[in-house]
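User: Predict structure, ligand zinc ion.
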Amino acid sequence: MAKLKVIEYPNPILRKKASKIKDFGSAELGKLISEMVEILKSAEGLGLAAPQVGKSRRVCVAREENNNFMVLINPVITASSRKKIPISEGCLSFPGKFYSISRPESIKVRHIDEKGKKCKIKASGLLARVIQHEVDHLDGILFIDRVKNKAN
Ligand SMILES: [Zn+2]
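Assistant: Predicted complex:
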């Protein structure tokens, strides 16, 4: 596998709905995840979704406040707080662009981790924000699509 790099807008892969992952434990999936973590570390980003490295698969990585990296495979947001807050967001596929976007403050997420374990988590603050942004990527939704909903 050639070394992955971050794909920038308007590459059409960013608009594709990514496909569900089934090959848990495969060498290919493991390599994809570890390369995504490396890219996110070196870019000093907060989150990265597989379509952003040219793989239309439902996996994303989010940096936690303790600088660990949370791997979310086939993530589903199962609940969102009614309360929304605006936060300035950036995206590795849009270098240098930041927009204030209003999204639910806290969420519940169901996903599978890198070890194949089913997880249910609650997230709030920055982590909730990153996960929502990355799950959007898996559906071909980009943060520029949400700019119009900002700040009420
Ligand atoms: Zn992004």
